[in-house]
Fold each of these.
Amino acid sequence: MDANNVLEIRGLNVEFASERGRLRALRDVDLTIPRGSIVGVVGESGCGKSTMINSIIGLLAHNATVSSGSISFQGEDLLQKSERELRDIRGQHISMIFQDPMTTLNPVLSIGTQMIDIQYRDQIPKAQKKARSIEMLSRVGIPDPESRLDNYPHQFSGGMRQRIAIAMALQAEPELLIADEPTTALDATLEVQIIHRLKDLQHSMGCSILFISHHLGVIAELCDFVIVMYGGEVVERGTVRDIFHRPSHPYTFKLLECDPARIAETTRSLPTIPGEIPNLAKLPPGCIFADRCERSIGLCREKIPPSTEFAEHHWARCHLAGEVSST
């Protein structure tokens, strides 16, 4: 593992046992998170984003199996860790911000109680834990944090609850923060505030962030690198500039076309990608996107394309890599 990276996923394959047969949810997934960077992951629902996250933190469902691959964090393979060892890593070294803060925060405990309780690993006085909690609430922009420690989650707005969730995740100063669509439930104004706050905290604390989102504008604003997933595969990865200005995979190109922010004229119908995500229990023999791709050729339906680096730090899983252009 490269010492400049905090996390490296190589050749990750995850399968689920189901009544329809074996679902190949992730196939040969590669992902790298450099230290101090923000890596965004985008893709349609069902593309494998949540499965990848749960593989990292060791919270896959009971019917899931990691058939092959490695997940190296700080030079150690998380897939080889025991449940006890993973518990020591989760929260302290890898923290998580979930999509809905109301399901993250306990509704019957005060914010202060929850923030102090999650510091159970630290052998320091309770007064010091309380002071640390107040400081973190202040850093995420909660006004008068000392008096608000006694408040319960329902006494905060949605944006404030999400800020509290961020404060709790960052309180242990983790090396890696995983944010699973943390702004989906917020309005546009609060979304911008949360994004800027998260970026400021990342710069000041120096942690790396894996940011999952459907919102392409948020990814473009926040991230340094972007991973594009489709049907359980990473179909393209590169810098945020490459992905948004020089997309190479046809799926990435179509995904950007569907961004409402790019629609120049008023219309009653939003752009969509024709077709459906393939059945993961019965995968096609060639490219996973071939049936929905306007540029597919005979080879696409016969052979799985390799992941090709056609420009520096810009990879695509496509037989025509480098030929797709937004111009």
Note: The chain has a mean pLDDT of 90.
Amino acid sequence: MKAAGVKAIKEELNSRSREELSDLCLKLSKFKKENKELLTYLLFEADNENLFIISIQEEIDLEFENINRKSYYFIKKSIRKILRNTKKNIRYSKKKQTEVELLLHFCKKLKKFDPSISNSIPLTRIFDREILKVEKILNTLHPDLKYDYETEIESILEL
């Protein structure tokens, strides 16, 4: 089956009744976990972005505590999983400030991680790549926010 385009889906949704839309959303949420997570964000968390950021940061903290530290191979796999989950949550929000906050928190946790990431080239590259992404996003933000985040990046790099 070939998926319809966004325009066609939008037109079809506009022609449906409120009850049909509700049923479609419920069916969509039962189909895949990510759909349910997106609906949860849109319905319950989109109104309070700060609370959403805090909850994701706590999730990142918890995942960092549960990393298997037996070898750098397992550490790398776990770090990539944490980053993948973080980016998934960033996609739900689509706000640049939220993206910067979450990526900076991830980088801070990664930099403080024990054993040190400086002993692993792949982990160092992940860190450097995410810092570069944050710096690129900062160019689109308000100058006051940009300054605040730049000082935070400097403090992370000094760790």
Note: The CA atoms of residues 13 and 98 lie 29 Å apart.
Amino acid sequence: MTTITTQSENPPTTSEPPKKTTPMDTHARAALEALLMTADRPLKPQAIIDPLNLLESKSDTITQDSLEAAIDALNEEYESTNRSYRIERVAAGYRIMTLPEFAPVVAAMHRARAGTRLTKTQLETLSIIAYRQPVTRAELENIRGVSCGDIVRALMDRQMVKITGRAEVLGRPMLYGTTPRFLDTFGLANLKDLPKPEEVLGTLEQ
């Protein structure tokens, strides 16, 4: 008896091999540094990955994992060569920032911009918004004991505060919260990085 073999009616189809993730080469890491150095705000991971992938071959691709590995490698290089900066995660993105010990010399260079600093009343109001958000203007004024309308508007002009919605109470007053600009200015990755109130009070007492 002979056995008849038939070809499958649906032969296996060939597909393109998946792109492989490889560590960034020297040129790609240099391009990463160029992106971060020329950005005026923290860059989200995808905003870095997309242009970097234009440099890579079709068989290789940069992913979140390879990006983080490259950032770790660069930070290790900066530390080993005593650089004054590191790549930090800020406001859901990455940014090159100077180390805290160099704050005095950086501040000295920017003294001409001292007029743009937050006033004490603005800082107090911003602190309440940061810790109590979303918060209404009435709640702010109840805590501070003074009118806060002009201060809130000034903070909104500085893009530190924004309207986040309306409260579900009589009159539906506007709710205020902080912005990504606030996180960037104070070097915070997210609101969870805010110091605890008791830590702030301890610092003030010292």
Note: Residues 64-80 form the longest helix (17 residues).
